[in-house]
Amino acid sequence: MADMKSVETILEGHPDAGRDHLIPILQEVQAAEGYLSKAAITRVGLALDLPASKIFGVATFYNMFRFQPRGTYHVMVCRGTACHVKGSKRVLDMVEKVLKIAPGETSRDGLFSLEVVACMGACGLAPVVNVNGQFHAKVTPMKLQRILEECRSEEFSHV
Amino acid sequence: MLALEANGQKIEARKGDTILQALQRGGIHVPTICHMEGLLPSGTCRMCVVEVEGAPGLVPACSFPAADGMRIHTSTPTVLKTRKAIVELLLSNHPDDCLYCARNGKCDLSDLAREHGVRNRVFRGLRKRKEKDISSPSIVRDPEKCILCGKCVRVCEEVQGVSAIDFINRGSKAFVGTAFDEGMNVSCCINCGQCILVCPTAALTERSYVDEVMRVLADPGKTVVVQHAPAVSVSIAEEFGFKPGTDIDGQMVAALRRVGFHRVFDTSFTADLTIMEEGSELIQRITQGGPLPMFTSCSPGWIKFVEQFYPELLPNVSTCKSPQQMMGAVIKSFFARRENLDPKDIVSVSIMPCTAKKFECARPEMGRDYVPDVDYVLTTRELAELFRIKGVDPGTLAPEGADTPFGERSSAGKLFGASGGVMEAAVRSAFFLLTGDEMKEYRIQDLRGMKGSKELRVKVGDLEVGAAVVSSLGQARKLMDEIKAGRSDLHFVEVMTCPGGCINGGGQPLKADLDSVKARMAALYAIDKTDTLRVSHRNSQVQRLYKEFLGKPLGHLSHQLLHTTYQKREVLR
Ligand code: SF4
Ligand code: SF4
Ligand code: SF4
Ligand code: FES
Ligand code: FES
Q1: Which residues of B touch A57 (CB under 8 A)?
Q2: Model's pTM, two decimal places?
Q3: Which distant-in-sequence residues (6+ apart) come within 8 Å of B44 by Cβ?
Q4: Which of A35, B50, B130, B525 is packed most tightly, with the most Cβ within 10 A?
């Protein structure tokens, strides 16, 4: 498996790793692969002598980990204080409804994935949404729907 | 000794006691949820709060150390109000399902609600919605009824060393589930059911086959045959109001006939048969240099455990099927032929103290020509339910005996129900097979009791045999790791999945404390003490089965019917 290579390399970077290395290792795996796959979690469990249920439990405790590969378009909705005040909840609800996915999930066609973050450091532009690294300012539910539509048509113009 | 005062009454405590232990010694009841006998306190539910004079707030009795001169109050208005509020909070997102619930009448949560006078819904939480997991042949999980006490997670990890389940997510989204929130059937769960025994609600129950069994009992075209395991007759009485440790073997057999089973066989018969086969296998391994130590194979949770976690030691596991599966195999071969029945028209049901037996009977290698040896497994609890549905109270019946050709048993076979019993039976017969003499004293005290790990060195002829007995897979794990690290003084190891053996199986009556389990064990020892047939090799019906059908132990037919194979098992672990 091509995936496993980077997990192996990451584990090599933590010789004699104990349980306290779990979170840093998982973070590195997610950085390398974009998410925590079953194969990766099982492999890390073997290395740290931790059951998969335990790792999954710990990983789901934190919001930062995802368990599905990222979509072609990775949508990050800010739920920080400034964005909250400016109505980011409605924006998030809209994304969930339109894409039929919850934060941490990826749509079935693999096109979109959703992540909720706390403050992206652009409070002046609140509410903020970031798609594949690109910031969108003062996003309303209507505006967001347009952004998502654009992504979709861009994708189809490729084929 | 520490001197304390509780509710104005003097009580004594030992050094190191928690307040809860001190109160229990003094005969004072305090309700608990997350507390588990024998494990470290987790202190999460707060149900056990009491007032301690001088302490700033209420303290949890289960995790607070008792101290000399402490003055404790267990039922002040504040204490009672707090406990009631805790129950009300637990109920805030709980389904109001009691009437339709598997635990109706046997639920710790509903008991607590009643005991604390909860009469209406005070807090209205959003109801948790999550589908039942019915993927496992043994265990059903209903997360909506889970109150997140964590006991199942702890028993699975700390007692069984399996860790199939854990807390997932956090806060209001938290639930208990398997790795990747998959079905139990693809997890590393070994189906032991110990989590069911500790669960205070119906969030964990056995997969029931009562309906299926009732259907075949009503089918005139079927011959429905039942076998009952050694540990059932000494525990099922609890379901009918007898005190723990009452043996109602004969009355249970009578009740089995009343509900419509055509033949009643005793699994202890095939326990005796197991001793003949497994004993011969052990002697063969010792004399011909097979993999040692040999592990027993009668506990199906243990078998799945080895297949998942120690596949390299699979050659050390005896190839003998478990007594349940041996019985199933001779029912659908020898018995079928003797009665002129097509095996397809026989339904073979077994009554087991165990949820893992449900998984075992469905293993594809446990049958021939797509006919399984055992069709349905009911736990002790399910049999009690079947009796109740059919209006049969075993307590009111006159005792009856089991049927031929598999009705005779030795008390050695009966001992299979307690940890150490297989070993004790095996030593008795091995001694005879190797020396030609009977042991002077059959009872082997070192192998008895609830201890998780017991060892024995016995001289059999000129051979000194090293024997170990472990119960609970946490204990098994320790021993396996020693063996993997090179320990080589053992010949024979008995492993039981459940702590104490089948008398404490995951299918046994709920709400049994350690004393009840010990009473069940003592009942088996009492049977053995007075029995006239105490060794497996003198079971005349077993001898007859060899003479008329099987030939000899480890013979060709034995291999076909009574032995099996194992395989490495890939699971999410
Ligand atoms: S688990 Fe207990 S409280 Fe919950 S519905 Fe069942 S009987 Fe009622
Ligand atoms: S049945 Fe046994 S192995 Fe499976 S989850 Fe329950 S305690 Fe763990
Ligand atoms: S399933 Fe039962 S034992 Fe496990 S946490 Fe929920 S209520 Fe407690
Ligand atoms: S709160 Fe959204 S960018 Fe700071
Ligand atoms: S029983 Fe003491 S905190 Fe749960």
Answers
A1: 166-168
A2: 0.93
A3: B34, B149, B150
A4: B50
